Amino acid sequence: MNTYPAQERRKYKRIKKQFVARFQLKDYIGTGKAVSDWEMVTTQNLGAGGVLFNYDKEIKIGSFIDMLINFPQVKKPINCTGKVIRIDRQSPAGLLKVAAYFLDISEKDKEIINKSAEEFYSKKEGRIEPYSQR
Questions:
Q1: Are strands 127-128 and 64-69 parallel, antiparallel or unpaired?
Q2: How far is 103 from 49, CA to CA, in rounded Å?
Q3: Which CATH architecture has domain 14-127?
Q4: pTM above 0.85, yes or no
Q5: Measured at the alpha carbon of residue 58, what is the angle toward residues 57 and 63, in degrees to the nearest 5?
Q6: How far apart are the first and last CA of the chain?
Q7: Domain coordinates of the chain in residue numbers?
Q8: Per residue in 105-122, pLDDT tens?
């Protein structure tokens, strides 16, 4: 039995902090048009490569989403497109934890998020550390 934790595969550090965001499901099989209204959610962690957020309705792995993330370092929300890669159910009647990676995000926004994550990480606040093997 392997007792070592899984190797960290993330390219970017994540800020373990709540941000208000909005998202809508997209239909990328042809038209690329929205297939849902904008929904308000709260992030659980955010990095330049992806996001984890809480959601109270069913959503499928593989779903494409457009997101607008209110980030204090910028005046306009960060606009990005992502793909849902994991869904964890907190309880049978509770919220879902939805993990998505970013398919399309500007380099400028990616740099802003990554710089903020590095600052949080260096202050040892609000961070998710990579696993270390002993």
A1: unpaired
A2: 8
A3: Beta Barrel (2.40)
A4: no
A5: 120
A6: 16
A7: 14-127
A8: 999 999 999 888 888 767
